[in-house]
Structures are given as C-alpha cells and as structure tokens.
Amino acid sequence: MRRKLLSGKMAGILAVLLVLFIVTGVAEEERTDASGQWKYVLEEVGATITGYVDESAGDLVIPCNLDGYPVTGIGFAAFEMYQGLTVVVIPEGVTDIGPAAFDYCENLANIVIPDSVTNIGDSAFYQCFALSDVTIPASVTSIGDGAFMGSGLTGMVIPNGVTSVSDEMFSHCYRLSSVVIPDSVTSIGDMAFYRCSYLASMTIPNSVTRIGEFAFFRCTGLSSVTIPDSVTHIGSHAFAACSGLTSVTIPAGVTSIDDDAFDAPNSVYDADEIDDMDVVYGSDNLTLTITEGSSAEQYAKENSIPYVLAAE
C-alpha cells in the first residue's frame, strides 16, 4: 500500500510540474553558472537550483546568488541520492524547498533552513536516515506529503502557521519520539505517523477536526490518547495495531468513526492489508472513554470494544 501510494503521488508531482513548465512558460532552459558547478533555471523571482555538476559530498553551502541572480528556490530532486552529503546550509532568500529536493540523501545529518523559507515540498527529505534533528523556522506555512517519510528524526516542532500534518509526513520515522503540533493545524493526514513505533505520547490540539486513515497505525509506543472536542472524523485504522494503547478518550463531537479505527479484542491485520512482511496484532487492553448516547458509544458496542462512560 505504501509503495503504491508514494509512487502515485510522485507521478502526480511530475505531471503537475510538467504542465506548469509548458503552460506558464515560467521555467527557462537549465543553465550552468560561471563556476561550472551549479545548475539552475531562472524564474520570475530569481534562480532555482536544479543540481550540482559534480555530485557534492561532505558540507555543502548553497550560494545566495548565481551569476548575479538571487537564489530563491531548491528545485525538484535537485540533490536526490547525493549519498556523500552530510551538511547543507541553505541561504537566506530561498523561499521554496522543492519536491524530493534531498530525497535519499542517506547520510545528510544536518540542514540549516533559513527564516525566508515558506514551503517544504513533497518528499523533500524522504529516506534521509541520518537526519535526526531539524529546526523548521516560523516562516514555513506548508510542509508537503511525505516530507520527512523514512527519515531518522527523533523529534519535531511544527511551526505555527502550518495548517495540516500532511499525508505520510512522518510515516516510517521509526526513531520519532516527540512531535509538537501547533493549534493552527486542522487536520492530521492519512498515514501521517504510520509506524512511528517510538512515539510515546501525542497531544492533539483543539483545532484538529479530522484524523486521517492509518494516521497512527502501528504506533506501538502510544499508551493513551485524548482526542479533543474539535475532532469530528476519525479515519479507518487511525489507531489500529497500536499494541501498547490502553486508553483513548473520544468526545461526543466525534460523529464519524470509520471501520477498524480502533482495535477490537483479538484484532489481527494480515500482511496483504498493510503491505508488511509479518502479521500485526492489535491491542487487547484498550478501553474507550466515551459519552453516553454518542457515536463513539455506538461504535464501541458494534465492535465489542470495552468502554466506560465519561464523568458528566
């Protein structure tokens, strides 16, 4: 499932970029700067770096201008699979880190993102295994699907202004133990924290209205979750296969809970269903705290999940 979802999204990204280049005519032919190393295209606001002639290794300081043009963007897959890259410093003035910009830079351990950046594209740091810590500046308002998927992040503070924890943003971040979600966020996307097994706690702000499909699937380190009053929808398998989960509080405002959002006793998920190599078991110790007469109570009864009524 994960591979199919990711490949479909990447194909979509490529298609959109192609249409933009053809229809708008914004991007020009790729150039090489006077040093003979940096590849770039000129856009209306400045130069977008598209690559490096000789694959860079070690520390990389991206210049603030090329041939007299200000550098304002890091383009699609500009440094994809630069295995020797360990440190990247992005200059002030860059506003956009494009899709797959540092995809599969497996040894990238440190990146400096300036206050000018507003967007981090889809899969920008996908499979950056060595990237354990990154500071996202307050200027960032958009973080794309799968931006840190499969990376080595141990913690993250999402800045105020970001409105969505996007699909697969932290999927397969096995070392991720702490995430701070601001109250600007209104949705947690599909597979946002899929298989983040070290995630021991999660505070969902009282601004989130939707928790997507497989959002916390197999987050085995979670023991308890309180869903805020603002949430109205919980997607299928959102908290399934969380084997350590014993307590979830669901407010009366939740009116839609999809199938298998929570583990029924003796739940088993087969490999074909979750695109995994083994059979995965759910929690047998889960108790829901719900409001009498709510959709959550009906859900618990229909799925034989133990529950208690919240104190009035």
Describe the structure concisely.
By secondary structure, the chain is α/β, with parallel strands linked by helices. It is 11% helix and 23% strand.
Secondary structure topology:
Elements: H1 2-24, E1 31-32, E2 38-42, E3 47-52, E4 58-61, E5 65-66, E6 69-74, E7 85-89, E8 96-97, E9 110-112, E10 119-120, E11 142-143, E12 155-157, E13 164-165, E14 178-180, E15 187-188, E16 210-211, E17 224-226, E18 233-234, E19 247-249, E20 256-257, E21 268-269, H2 271-274, E22 280-281, E23 287-290, H3 295-302, E24 307-309
Structural write-up:
The chain is of the alpha/beta class and 312 residues long. 11% of the residues lie in helices and 23% in strands. It has helices at residues 2-24, 271-274, 295-302; strands spanning 31-32, 38-42, 47-52, 58-61, 65-66, 69-74, 85-89, 96-97, 110-112, 119-120, 142-143, 155-157, 164-165, 178-180, 187-188, 210-211, 224-226, 233-234, 247-249, 256-257, 268-269, 280-281, 287-290, 307-309. Strands 1, 2, 3, 5, 6, 8, 10 and 11 form an eight-stranded mixed sheet that branches. Strands 13-15-16-18-20 form a five-stranded parallel sheet, with helices on one face. Strands 17-19-23-24 form a four-stranded parallel sheet, covered by helices on one side. It starts with a helix and ends with a strand. The model is unreliable at 1-5 and 16-27 (pLDDT under 50).
